[in-house]
Design goal:
Elements: H1 3-12, H2 14-21, E1 33-39, E2 42-47, E3 50-51, H3 53-57, H4 62-65, E4 69-75, E5 81-85, H5 86-102, E6 110-114, H6 119-131, E7 134-137, H7 144-154, E8 158-162, E9 164-167, E10 170-173, H8 175-184, E11 191-195, E12 210-212, H9 213-219, E13 230-231, E14 237-240, E15 250-253, H10 256-268, E16 277-280, H11 287-299, E17 303-308, H12 318-326, E18 330-333, H13 335-342, E19 359-363, H14 369-379, E20 382-386, E21 397-398, E22 415-416, E23 422-425, E24 438-443, E25 454-455, H15 459-466, E26 475-483, E27 489-494, E28 498-501, E29 504-507, H16 508-516, E30 521-531, E31 535-544, H17 549-564, E32 572-575, H18 589-596, H19 610-622
Parallel strand pairs: 4-17, 6-7, 6-8, 7-14, 8-11, 11-12, 16-17, 16-18, 18-19, 19-20, 31-32
Antiparallel strand pairs: 1-2, 3-13, 4-5, 9-10, 14-15, 15-25, 21-22, 23-24, 24-26, 26-27, 28-29, 30-31
The structure holds adenosine-5'-triphosphate and magnesium ion.
């Protein structure tokens, strides 16, 4: 099937197209209406149909592939690898679901999951799905305050945690963080269920509130729990955005539309079918982890690999050794992850047999060309940049090797995924811009299946955040884009990441790209800083792979002037040891900008390494 025809059909006849796609999953009762769009921009896909994510991810595979691996959970932190077949997954999930029921958790109740990237996190998610409880996974690396905020938003009946996680060999006790969060929260859960990994034998227990999973698991051994059939539009889970641009938004996902969109994306985009192996390096706490470590691969009967640990432990070849050992067909990671490897010897990329590996997808951030070339040359595979958001739940832009693979254009995540009606429009007039012109990337509603249904408990914020930017009712991605003559879209950065130098509007991304072409540069972050004369001037913060700071700064300036013109010339270049990022690896430009303008750095709840901000402060004090 050719991409063009497939995509066009999804636009011309969305109901026919999605009715066909819906056959890829099991329905308990078939949908009565493919699309109900009586209340724009709210839409209901497959309304009246009942189904269940856990049934589709687990039960329905038992006959054909019960003994096939469903999940391989590898931890380079604990040194433990667990290989779990579909039958074993079915057993574990049933026991977990039975435990949840015994704790009075049922349909529609929220369950917060605060765990490292371990198999039980997946069991817990699927168990919630099985009984119709709404999970809200909170990334295990977040501090207690973040957890408390999410508890208060979700008001869970239960919190599931591990005793501890590990990062770089260091044990991080979770239980004290959970206790602190429950104290801080206004609406703490009545019960905390702790899965002990034996990492923190002294973990405290609060009498009457805390229960141990081990004991309950034994008590519920062999249990079977009936699947709860949910209407397609009931909530399946909540998940917060990364908080790069401000307070995170609680994305609410449905059941049927999500399952159908994932099934479609697995074969058409990721080129993975039943019996094949997918390895996503994401944490289950992120959108990629939900869609492509848990639900996507399992819904289609593939094997999913979950990895806990650094990409450099025990050595920088660890990801590729996993690809070799399990015959991974498609791998999924992030530009940030690849940049970590880029600081290591490229010889690590050549040490393992990657003959099974077909594709490496990268998402989450702009993929700069030097990094794209480095990894393409290093592993000798096709690298596919794909663009999406926590909100969309699956790719918006990608190349689709499962249909027909179009040529890669470095710097572009490619073409619209099926079902997406994308436009690039002028931010002021709202008119479509021509090929090669910059505008805001918008999705024409109704949003396709899989995308968020609303912001949890806050329809007004849903409207205001995404649909209030233009006269027409359009979903704003809040990202700048350019579409070229061939329809390839290039993402230029966020709409609040634009610099206005003496009336010239420059995307921070373009300047960052230009800086990172300098061989010494590992990563560059560019922001606009207030300037009395020009309005704003570009300021660069960069980390180096090697070389001298002053020479690198001069080199970056020269390259920007040469590639983008004198107007983009960075007014100041600061070389730092680390850049401030969110826990999901995204540059916190808004905080850099605030510090450079001597303002408060804003919501730092999702900041990864506070040391990086201190470094920036010191660099600013020292001067460029
Ligand atoms: P918040 O919405 O809370 O500010 P966030 O936007 O970083 O945080 P995510 O949903 O994790 O939260 O990230 C989606 C954003 O990441 C996109 O809107 C885009 O800015 C960026 N992004 C994702 N993939 C790509 C890509 N392939 N190329 C360029 N940018 C990307
Ligand atoms: Mg966002």
């Amino acid at each position: 099937m050719r991409y063009e025809a497939f995509h066009q059909r999804s636009i011309d006849d969305p109901e026919g197209f999605w009715a066909e796609q819906a056959r890829a999953i099991d329905w308990h009762t078939p949908p009565q209406k493919v699309l109900d769009y009586r209340d724009p921009p709210f839409r209901r896909w497959f309304s009246g149909g009942t189904t269940n994510l856990c049934h589709n991810a687990v039960d329905r595979h038992l006959d054909a592939r019960g003994e096939q691996l469903a999940l391989v959970a590898i931890s380079s932190e604990t040194g433990v690898t667990r290989e779990i077949s579909y039958r074993e997954l079915f057993d574990e999930v049933n026991v977990f679901a039975s435990v949840l029921k015994s704790l009075d958790v049922g349909r529609g109740d929220r369950v917060v999951i605060y765990m490292p990237n371990m198999a039980e996190a997946v069991f817990a998610m699927l168990a919630c799905a099985r009984i119709g409880a709404v999970h809200s996974v909170v990334f295990g690396g977040f501090a207690s305050h973040n957890l408390a905020l999410r508890i208060d938003d979700a008001r869970p009946k239960l919190l599931i945690c591990a005793d501890a996680g590990m990062r770089g060999g260091k044990v991080i006790a979770y239980k004290p963080l959970v206790d602190a969060a429950c104290t801080e929260a206004q609406h703490p859960p009545p019960h905390v269920l702790m899965v002990s990994r034996g990492l923190d034998p002294d973990a405290s227990r609060v009498e009457g509130r805390d229960v141990d999973y081990d004991a309950l698991r034994a008590a519920h051994a062999g249990a079977r729990v009936e699947v709860e059939w949910l209407e397609s539009n009931e909530p399946s889970y909540l998940l917060y955005t990364s908080g790069t641009t401000g307070k995170p938004k609680g994305v609410q996902r449905d059941v049927g539309g999500y399952a159908v969109a994932l099934a479609l994306s697995m074969w058409s985009i990721y080129d993975v079918r039943a019996g094949q192996v997918m390895f996503s390096t994401s944490d289950v706490g992120w959108a990629v982890g939900h869609s492509y470590n848990v639900y996507g691969p399992l819904i289609v009967g593939a094997t999913s690999i979950l990895y806990e640990g650094l990409p450099t432990n025990p050595d920088p070849g660890v990801w590729w050794s996993i690809c070799e050992k399990y015959g991974v067909r498609t791998m999924f990671s992030s530009p940030t992850g690849i940049r970590v490897l880029k600081k290591q010897d490229a010889a690590w990329l050549k040490k393992h047999d990657l003959s099974q590996l077909q594709w490496l997808f990268l998402a989450g951030e702009p993929l700069d060309e030097p990094t794209a070339h480095w990894i393409t040359d290093g592993i000798g595979k096709t690298i596919i940049d794909n663009y999406w958001q926590t909100e969309t739940g699956w790719p918006v832009l990608s190349l689709m090797p499962g249909l027909d693979m179009k040529p890669v254009k470095f710097g572009s995540p490619g073409l619209p995924a099926p079902g997406y009606r994308l436009r690039v429009i002028d931010d002021v007039s709202g008119a479509d811009v021509g090929a090669g012109e910059k505008g805001v990337l918008v999705i024409e509603p109704p949003l396709p299946p899989g995308c968020l249904t609303t912001v949890w408990g806050d329809d007004a914020r849903f409207m205001q955040s995404y649909f209030s930017h233009f006269k027409e009712l359009l979903y704003s991605s809040l990202d700048w884009a350019i579409r070229d003559e061939d329809g390839y879209t290039f993402i230029l950065g966020r709409t609040d990441d634009v610099i206005n130098v003496a009336g010239h509007r420059l995307g921070t991304r373009e300047i960052e790209e230009s800086c990172s072409t300098h061989p010494s540069v590992a990563e560059a972050a560019v922001i606009g800083v207030h300037d009395a004369l020009k309005g704003q001037v570009p300021v660069v913060f960069a980390t180096l792979r090697e070389g001298d700071a002053a020479a690198a700064a001069e080199g970056m300036r020269a390259r920007v002037v040469e590639q983008l013109g004198a107007v983009a010339r960075p007014a100041r270049v600061y070389v730092v040891g680390a850049l401030p990022k969110t826990r999901s690896g995204k540059l916190l430009r808004r905080s850099l900008q605030a510090l450079a303008e001597q303002r408060d750095p804003g919501d730092l709840s999702t900041l990864d390494d506070p040391g990086a901000l201190d470094e920036v402060r010191r660099a600013l004090e020292r001067g460029a």
